[in-house]
Amino acid sequence: MASAAPEATGEKKKLWGGRFSEDIDPLMEKFNESLSFDRRMAQEDIRGSKGYAKALAKTGIITDDERDQLVEGLGKVAEEWAADAFVVKSGDEDIHTANERRLGELIGPVAGKLHTGRSRNDQVATDTRMWLRDQLVLLRGHLRQLIAVAVERAEREVDVVMPGFTHLQSAQTVRWSHWLLSHAAAWQRDDMRIADLMPRVNTLPLGSGALAGNPFGVDRQALAADLAFERVCPNSMDAVSDRDYVAETMFWASATMIHLSRWSEDLIIYSSGQFGMVKLSDAYSTGSSLMPQKKNPDALELLRGKSGRILGTLTGFLAVMKGTPTTYNKDFQEAWEGLFDTVDTMSDCLQIAAGCLATLSIDPEAMRRGLSADMLATDLAEYLVRRGVPFRETHHISGAAVKLAEDKKCALSDLTLEDLLPLCDKFEADVVDIWSYDKSAESRDTEGGSSRRSVLEQCAKLRRYLEETEGEVVPY
């Protein structure tokens, strides 16, 4: 005698349960579920399902009336999620299962027609791409705000000079604005990278089925247009197994966080008591539980620390993907928590960075105190270059002048013309003019250099870039 069907006995049916006769291990149920984290894609799952219902109706597989029932019912499910009134039940292993189960409760058996020709394989890929493209728009907006803050400060504080460093050793005189724009240049590349990434994220997998394609003639181009995708995935097998867009997002985040981490490290150093060149706002600092005098740059340290977290997520995800066979594998579920955490962390970090930069104060006098005459050694060499001496010779002559100042226990700028002439007969009385930090910075007047004109030109270029690309940052 045939056993009763699950629906006849009141048991809950799995979407995939027809082939199985034994109950699933409760631990496996927990191990397998993803609703606890993929529920954040509820609205995207519903939007994609509405689009798919319309596409099915165009093929004649469902009637227009059935399409309307599906769309109306999905709208009610969306309202429940929006009102935080959706009731999760046992067996809701993921957002797709939960939404379809609730849809059936609302509109009856016609809900079962929604999944015709569709698999959770192409469904989840569609949902995540829809979710991610909207998140990338928001992240790009935060990143561009950080760039805008940097440009505004660079223009306003262009006349402040400070030490520039290589190997963390005092090197040459630069402008504070020039240092600031060095980081903004990296952030601009990050903005370019996210713009380049967006079209590959915004590619439609839906209509690929489990792996082999859709047998009902769904018009994928029309479906893509309806769901605001730029194009469709060109191969159904690749479509359901492609997670490059996840890896690329994680790489973009990693590169951006490396830039934020290096920026943070600079400011942590510059804010230390030994430097005292910048001071972080109280809003982004904490104190010590033991030492009342302490003001710790915790926001910057957390930015530096979270870069490691983002890098680790990328590395872990690539390790998950590297050995998976074609096409879909449940390993891919490991992508989502890392992706969600990456997006959340980047949102926080970019906004915190912008807040730190907008509110920190600088001490121009402390910056100037950090300058030392030996940082003008290159200027001394360049003085002789202008008098026809080959640079390789002037480099050695300037080095000898530095050694002479050390031996005399005086600053390089305290050497007299009489001290310098034995090193090279090209020195003249006007050599004293090079002992100026402002002139040193101003002398490097090439494109991208540290002169006032060049720095303001860099600001203008960044402003123009932000204006010209503003139209790209639009919601889908």
From TrEMBL:
CDD domains: Argininosuccinate_lyase
Phylogenetic placement of the source organism: Eukaryota, Viridiplantae, Chlorophyta, Mamiellophyceae, Mamiellales
PANTHER family: ARGININOSUCCINATE LYASE
Pathway field: Amino-acid biosynthesis; L-arginine biosynthesis; L-arginine from L-ornithine and carbamoyl phosphate: step 3/3
HAMAP family in alphabetical order: Arg_succ_lyase
E.C. number: 4.3.2.1
Fumarate lyase N-terminal domain location: 18-312
Protein name (database record): argininosuccinate lyase
Keyword Lyase included in the entry's annotation: yes
GO molecular function terms noted in the UniProt entry: argininosuccinate lyase activity
Residues annotated as domain Argininosuccinate lyase C-terminal: 375-440
Top-level division of the source organism's lineage: Eukaryota
UniProt keyword annotation of Transport present: no
UniProt KW keywords: Amino-acid biosynthesis, Arginine biosynthesis, Lyase
Enzyme class: lyase
Catalytic activity: 2-(N(omega)-L-arginino)succinate = fumarate + L-arginine
GO BP annotations listed: L-arginine biosynthetic process via ornithine
InterPro entries in the cross-refs: Arg_succ_lyase_C, Argininosuccinate_lyase, Fumarase/histidase_N, Fumarate_lyase_CS, Fumarate_lyase_fam, Fumarate_lyase_N, L-Aspartase-like
A GO cellular component annotation in the UniProt record: cytosol
Coiled-coil regions listed in the entry: none
Family: Belongs to the lyase 1 family. Argininosuccinate lyase subfamily.
